[in-house]
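Sample intake sheet
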Amino acid sequence: MHAVRLHAFGPAENLRHERTEDPVPAPGQVRIAVRAAGVHLLDTVLRQGLPGPNPAPATLPTIPGREVAGTVDALGEGTDPAWLGRDVVAHLGNVPGGYAELAVTDADRLHPVPEGLGHAEAVAMIGTGRTTLGILAATPLGPDSVALVTAAAGGIGTLIVQYAKKAGATVIGLAGGPAKTARVRDNGADLAVDYTRPDWPRHVRIHLDALGRRATVLYDSVGSTTARAADAHRDLETRGTIGKVVLIP
C-alpha cells in the first residue's frame, strides 16, 4: 500500500510518501480501506515529538494520523462479520496509522457512517464533533440562552454555532475578516462580528442592548485554559457576559 511515513521527529518535510506492507488485522480488529483521513493540530505536535495530551510514537518510522473514514475490507479473527463492507469512521486512539491506503483498528472503535454523510465530513465529526458534544454537555442551551462564540468559523466554533441555533439560543459569533464572518452568518449566527476591528466589543454590546440581554455563556477557544483563566474574569466584565465562560484548549 501507499502511506505517508515519519522517519524522524521534526518539520513537515520529514513526512515521506512511500510504499509499505499492507497491515493485517489482529483478533478483534478490522482493516479499513481509507477514503479520508483527518489532519489534526495534535498530529503536528506528535510529528515534532513534542509533549502533548497523547504520547508521541515510541518507535520510528511510523504512519501518523488518528482519524479515518472508509470501508471495512478485512476482519481479524473473532470480529463481527457484519462489519465487512460497511462504511465506517474511527478514531484510532494512541495507535496512529491513518495516513495510508489501509489502516487497522479495534472493532469497538468503529462508528457506521450515517447515510448521506461523506467520508470527509465523517472524519471531521469524529474528532471535532466529539469535542464539541463534550463542551455542550457541560453547558446546556435553550431559547433563553445567549451564546458568544470566539473563533466561530473554526472547526469547533462552526459546530457550536449550529448546535446552539438548533437548541433555540441567540448566537453571536466572532471571527477574523469578511470571509469568515460571512461563513459564521451562513451557519446561522444571529450576529457575526469581525474581531480584527478594534471596535468589535461595541458592536456586541449594541446587539445585546437591543435585545435587552447579556450573554449567558462564552465559548472561548483562544489560548490555553491555564493562560486564559485570569482573562476569563475580564471577559465577564468587558464582554457583557453573565453565566459561564467555557475555556477550550
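Comment: The two ends are 36 Å apart (CA to CA). Residues 2-124 form a domain with the Quinone Oxidoreductase; Chain A, domain 1 fold (CATH 3.90.180.10).
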